[in-house]
Amino acid sequence: MDTKNFFRLAPALERFRKQRGVSQKAAALAAGIDATRLSAIERGRVVGPGKDFVERLIRTIEMTPDEADLLAELAARDRVMREVIRNFPPAAHAFLDAALDAAQVLAAEDVAEAERGLRQMVQAKVRLQAFVARA
């Protein structure tokens, strides 16, 4: 089984870098990282680079906050999946990969639900303050 399919950072990093017209060599040089390592990450040969490495690339490629958050999440996910592959039998890899994806979606839905609830609370407070001010 090809384990590269379980990792998400490589294609996203390459896509963001190319969208901005930045070569691997230029990105690596500006971030103060090894160009060979960046190439290996984008090809999926090195997975789960550390937070510092990813943060330097995010600054170098000048990503939007949403893109930076996504890239950081993908790097963290890849680090978890790397440990799954190291520590679980191949038969479990696809299941655990799907479980990670599901957990990410559920987490996003939970955050969205919390934001909706908070907005409703703020709107209710504003209405109450307006009512009290009129009374």
From TrEMBL:
The keyword Transport does not apply. Gene3D superfamilies: lambda repressor-like DNA-binding domains (1.10.260.40). The keyword Lipid metabolism does not apply. Keywords: Plasmid. PROSITE patterns: HTH_CROC1 (PS50943). SMART domains: HTH_XRE. Residues 13-68 form the HTH cro/C1-type domain. This is Helix-turn-helix transcriptional regulator.
